[in-house]
């Protein structure tokens, strides 16, 4: 494929959409199989102390391999690199990873090929040249960004495989695989495992995470206009977003419903489906967001009728490599409540001198 976008039947990015869905649905199935056989030795600890597993690497390998086969000119900015895996003492982990990957990508026959595919995930990163004081920059044209498994751990309930296609530093296609997320969180008998997909200008759709099920249903953000009737979704981990400040914002908005707490970009998914109306990412002043933690979720929420900005109401700026270095925090809503939420956020932050 060339570096220009493709279409089928007049719809922009139709081929990219199909290939991205194939990759993410396949990764969902692979991750579930790895999860079933996961043992403690297969968990690594990254410098930022978030869990990384064989499933994380395996998902990245499958998705990067599949998409570089179909779109070799599109670079990647993905979360994982092979640095930890290459270390002495990780021989057993590399062997286990290779065994899992071979079940879905038989052409990867040795560790060298495996590690090479993982590192293709950094092919789109343009590093700053320190001697000239340049900032990191994102690729031009079309490129992918990937979070292979956001907050994956056998002890966590929710995790997501988040893939986005960027065009000139704006997300135009998002696929969010949520293998453990029920289709309806209010229905205990609802099927578990869903994938949300959205292309700019084409709406947001949900389908099963099962390979056999291809039927898609259009989803929309909630129609709530009275903030007192809204509900929040927020991270389980207080370190990922300030629960205390969120509670103050909820009080200002008159929100009384208990927050829906879950990890990963599944939170964007439930805002897009209307299960929650507000998602706040309130991090410490020193923390800078990673682009792969938000790109897929942003296009999915917007195509469902919602809105996403930073805490000051500014659009997210994707043009600075791996980081959202020109933004602070994230506010995602159903759209109708966005300005009211921003006002409450600013008031609470001012009161807390944040």
Automatic annotation (TrEMBL):
Key word Metal-binding present: yes
InterPro entries: DPNP, Inositol_monoP_superfamily, Inositol_monophosphatase-like, Inositol_monophosphatase_CS
Cofactor dependency: Mg(2+)
CDD domains: PAP_phosphatase
Keyword Metal-binding appears in the UniProt entry: yes
Residues that hold Mg(2+) according to the record: 79, 147, 149, 293
Keyword terms of this UniProt record: Hydrolase, Magnesium, Metal-binding
Source organism, top-level taxon: Eukaryota
GO molecular function terms attached to this record: 3'(2'),5'-bisphosphate nucleotidase activity; metal ion binding
Catalyzed reactions: 3'-phosphoadenylyl sulfate + H2O = adenosine 5'-phosphosulfate + phosphate; adenosine 3',5'-bisphosphate + H2O = AMP + phosphate; adenosine 2',5'-bisphosphate + H2O = AMP + phosphate
GO BP: inositol phosphate metabolic process; phosphatidylinositol phosphate biosynthetic process; sulfate assimilation
Assigned EC number: 3.1.3.7
Transmembrane feature ranges: none
Free-text function comment from the UniProt entry: Converts adenosine 3'-phosphate 5'-phosphosulfate (PAPS) to adenosine 5'-phosphosulfate (APS) and 3'(2')-phosphoadenosine 5'-phosphate (PAP) to AMP.
Family: Belongs to the inositol monophosphatase superfamily.
PANTHER family in UniProt: 3'(2'),5'-BISPHOSPHATE NUCLEOTIDASE, PHOSPHATASE
NCBIfam families assigned: bisphos_HAL2
Protein name in UniProt: 3'(2'),5'-bisphosphate nucleotidase
Species: Acanthamoeba castellanii (strain ATCC 30010 / Neff)
Record lineage: Eukaryota, Amoebozoa, Discosea, Longamoebia, Centramoebida
């Amino acid at each position: 494929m060339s570096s220009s976008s493709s279409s089928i039947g007049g719809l922009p990015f139709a081929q990219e959409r199909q290939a991205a869905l194939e990759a993410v649905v396949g990764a969902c199935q692979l991750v579930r199989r790895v999860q079933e056989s996961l043992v403690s030795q297969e968990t690594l600890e990254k410098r930022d102390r978030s869990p990384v597993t064989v499933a994380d690497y395996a998902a990245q390998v499958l998705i990067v391999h599949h998409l570089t086969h179909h779109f070799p000119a599109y670079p990647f900015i993905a979360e994982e690199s092979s640095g930890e895996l290459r270390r002495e003492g990780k021989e057993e982990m590399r062997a286990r990873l290779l065994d899992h990957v071979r079940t879905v990508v038989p052409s990867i026959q040795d560790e060298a090929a495996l590690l090479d595919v993982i590192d293709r995930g950094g092919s789109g990163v343009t590093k700053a040249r320190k001697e000239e004081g340049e900032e990191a920059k994102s690729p031009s044209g079309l490129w992918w960004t990937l979070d292979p498994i956001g907050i994956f751990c056998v002890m966590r309930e929710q995790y997501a495989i988040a893939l986005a296609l960027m065009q000139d530093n704006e997300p135009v296609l998002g696929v969010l695989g949520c293998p453990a997320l029920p289709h309806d969180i209010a229905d205990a008998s609802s099927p578990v495992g869903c994938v949300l997909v959205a292309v700019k200008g084409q709406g947001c759709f949900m389908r099963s995470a099962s390979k056999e099920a291809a039927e898609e249903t259009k989803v929309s953000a909630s129609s709530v206009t009275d903030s007192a009737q809204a509900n929040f979704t927020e991270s389980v981990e207080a370190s990922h977003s300030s629960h205390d400040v969120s509670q103050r914002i909820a009080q200002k908005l008159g929100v009384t419903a208990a927050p829906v707490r879950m990890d990963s970009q599944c939170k964007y998914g439930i805002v897009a489906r209307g299960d929650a109306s507000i998602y706040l990412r309130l991090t410490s002043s020193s923390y800078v967001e990673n682009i792969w933690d938000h790109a897929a979720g942003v296009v999915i929420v917007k195509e469902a009728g919602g809105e996403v900005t930073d805490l000051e109401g500014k659009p997210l700026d994707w043009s600075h490599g791996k980081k959202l270095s020109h933004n602070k925090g994230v506010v995602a809503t159903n759209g109708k409540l966005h300005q009211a939420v921003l006002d409450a956020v600013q008031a609470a932050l001012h009161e807390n001198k944040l």
